[in-house]
Design a protein that fits this description.
Blueprint lengths: L1 E5 L7 H13 L5 E5 L10 H12 L9 H8 L2 E5 L9 H10 L6 E3 L5 E3 L5 E7 L10 H11 L4 E7 L9 H15 L7
Parallel strand pairs: 1-2, 1-3, 3-6, 6-7
Antiparallel strand pairs: 4-5
The protein binds flavin mononucleotide.
Length: about 190
């Protein structure tokens, strides 16, 4: 199953367009499950929600539906995240999603030395981003890569980017189309930012 986590907001999102083309390319025979974050009822953890969740985790009671996102993430074979570059990072709803899925016992555990050990099944996570100016990965792709590979057990994280889309003089439509045309090559290359 390919899990598509769509954090795009705009109706004509260019990031979503590239992500959908990627899924068409990699997901010919797979079941695709899209989670459009802006249409989900995801809330950041406040004290009440955190205490409730902590109690369920301590009781080893993972049947509650608040854990559905985490279970779905853990069992996906491939993960695609689309995230426009916002304020040097990504939309807050995506951070809220991470907060909701990062459940110790479902996506990650600590080993006997206190080191995190990922429990997620996915071999690959694709991170698709578009940016208005030059793309800087420090607080978006680099963070997601570290989370995915070092904590969640996902073997490889791949960046797909289209940048300079809002700069006068740049052909934004052409950049997006070129990115889509090049996807076949981009997904084979080693990620360099
Ligand atoms: C709230 C907001 C914050 C943004 N912050 C940045 C930024 O920090 N750097 C940048 O290069 N572009 C920034 N942009 C421009 C977007 O990254 C760019 O327009 C992107 O292609 C939008 O993706 P979309 O077409 O999928 O919505 C921002 C746009 C918005 C709406």
């Amino acid at each position: 199953m390919i899990l598509y986590i769509n954090s795009c907001v705009r109706h004509n999102s260019r990031t979503n367009k590239i992500a959908k083309a990627l899924i068409d390319l990699i997901g010919k025979n797979d079941e695709i499950k899209e989670v459009k974050l802006s249409e989900e009822n995801l809330l950041p953890l406040n004290e009440e929600r955190l205490e409730y969740r902590t109690r369920l985790i301590e009781e080893n009671n993972f049947d509650n539906r608040i854990f559905d996102y985490a279970k779905e993430f853990a069992k996906a074979d491939t993960i695609v995240i689309s995230a426009p570059f916002w304020d040097l990072s990504f939309p807050a709803i995506l951070k809220t999603y991470f907060e909701n899925i990062y459940v110790t016992g479902l996506v990650s555990v600590y080993d006997e030395k206190g080191q995190p050990k990922g429990l997620c099944k996915a071999d690959k996570l694709y991170y698709v981003v578009t940016s208005g100016g030059p793309y800087v990965p420090d607080y978006s792709f680099d963070y997601v890569k570290s989370l995915a590979e070092d904590y969640l057990g996902i073997k490889e994280t791949k960046l797909i980017k289209a940048e300079m889309l809002d700069v006068i003089g740049y052909d934004s439509k052409g950049i997006v189309e070129d990115t889509i045309l090049n996807l076949k090559h981009i997904i084979k290359e080693k990620t360099t930012v």
